[in-house]
Amino acid sequence: MQRVLTLSSNRKPLMPCHPARARRLLREGRASVFRRQPFTIILNDRDDGNVQPVDCRLDPGSRTTGIALVAQGEHGDRLVWAGELTHRSAAIKQSLDSRRSLRRARRVRKTRYRKPRFDNRSRPQGWLAPSLSSRVAQTTTWVRRLTALTPVNAAQVETVRFDTQKLENPDIAGVEYQRGTLFGEELRQYLLTRHNHTCAYCRGQSNDPVLNRDHVLPKALGGTDRVANLVIACRTCNEAKDNIHPQRWIAQLSTSNRRVDRVRADNMARIWSGWRPSLKDAAAVNATRYATGNAVKTLIPDTRFDSGGRTAFNRKQQGHPKAHWVDAACVGERGSSVRISPQHQPLAIKATGWGSRQMQRVDRHGFPRTSTKGARNVQGFQTGDRVEAVVPKGRKAGRYVGRVAVRSSGSFNIQSANGVIQGINHRHCRVIHQADGYTYN
Ligand SMILES: [Zn+2]
């Protein structure tokens, strides 16, 4: 069960409490609502309390980042709060691309070709594209918010998919290659990354989503468990290949007329001749995760980095379902034993941004289409505020709760769960949660 974040009367973070307890405290007037999202109460009569160590664990992803707060109690670790943060990398890239193309079109429209003058552009070391740095910024925003509301004293961040050092360790015995060991998970993550999460033989032609590791030279024919003899293959290809020698399989496939068999023959021939996809892009893939980890470290000094192989191993060992927030709870060495209630519902957080700097809407040629944008703040309301509107009479009589879009006329639109309600006068509205760049549900 998602716990309620709790502050003492002097705003010191206390242990998150059970929702039933929070309801009782609010009913008895011993606490007040401090913040709607994440739901936080502030105690009116206590300025201190016992706190246990709380771990902030992160599983940074390209679209969604899992966030978990894990309390270390006497009876082991338990998940107290979880969230899934959805980033807006695609929206950022799209708007920058559209700005670039509009500017370029405007620049060249009535100009002869002029060759580039000089290349004096440079980027600082560790530069990330805006779509990527937004992921880092959004994650640190949430870590900062949560550290102000809970007694977080340490952090665990999944910074890499697999641990290269473990894979290079020559002391690994054959038995450890088996599925269900920590090394086996690291190896699986490595192979999945190397083969870009597609079957090495059919390249996804079979449409089989089940991917497993496969011995290029079957073990029955003397193939080893070494990384060089392993690829990722779908179940269909795995069963079709069976225990046949690669060269014999290529010969068999070459006689087939099926398209998938010809793809398989081509890829098997390349793999048999020693070709493997390169991993040089893996560092770039991990750059954003590392930047996230380092940014978190500036907020929480006791931050440790760990691998996705360990996360997957921890999650599978405990039989937890696959989800970003569950993965976050399983990050790191301590992630091997975390109690997660089956009814736990994480907070869904979606980054919405803060509107645009563009002063006017433009047509498809980049020329102004509307009048200049009005003030951001109208009658004390901002686009993005969560409001409650109670309309006493008329056609739109009723109570509406949702995200408001302000108009300078003072007649607002409210995006509620049942759709958009237009033309609600500001006099009927009341702010529940001020715009903070995110939406929740
Ligand atoms: Zn396949």
Automatic annotation (TrEMBL):
UniProt keywords, alphabetically: Endonuclease, Hydrolase, Nuclease
GO-annotated molecular function: endonuclease activity
Boundaries of every HNH nuclease domain copy: 186-239
CDD domains: HNHc
Short name of any one Pfam family annotated for the protein: HNH_5
PANTHER family xrefs: OS07G0170200 PROTEIN, SLL1193 PROTEIN
Descriptive protein name: HNH endonuclease
